[in-house]
Amino acid sequence: MQRTRGSDHRPWYAWALFVIRVLMGAFFLMEGIQQLVNGYIGSDKLAEKFRKADPIPPYDWLIDHVFLKIDDPLTVLVIVGELAVGAALVLGLLTRLTALVALFMNVNFLLLNGLHLSSGGVDAAFVVGEGLLLLFASHQALSLDELLVRRGVLPLGANNPPGPAGL
Questions:
Q1: CA–CA gap between residue 51 and residue 53 (Å, rounded)
Q2: Which residues contact 96 (CB under 8 A, 6 or more apart)?
Q3: How many domains does the chain have?
Q4: Is the residue at 7 inside a domain?
Q5: pTM of the prediction?
Q6: What is the DSSP string of 125-141?
Q7: CA neighbours within 13 Å on the CB side: how many for 58?
Q8: Band of residue 118 on the pLDDT scale cut at 50, 70, 90
């Protein structure tokens, strides 16, 4: 499909990926900001979440023997990760790398929350969305990645190689 300057005729799936990316990014930002505002840093609120969780075995062992022992630095890491992933997704910056980091985070959240629809449903939906962004990042609309590729800052293929034929 050829585009003329000043027009933006993108296929529907480019806009669907844009919506998925921005909504997930906004959710990550909201979670990170909420944890900052609620005083997670320097408190034992993350450790409380770990203790109340219904993790999938053997993830419960990892919580008891690793995460609860490092909950202070882990709290900071989670909040910084949520804010960084959220901002990068909203902007469409290094989308594949960001989606990979987000996927890692959400798989951990899913294992922590269990496979219950009420607690793990959002995490499972995010895993699917992040998988779509990993596979089809080169087809998304309105991203900084696209601008950086056009300006030669990101080489074509470094972050957004051409996707499958027909998409």
A1: 6
A2: 133, 134, 137, 159, 160
A3: 1
A4: no
A5: 0.82
A6: HHHHHHHHHHHHGGG-S
A7: 4
A8: low
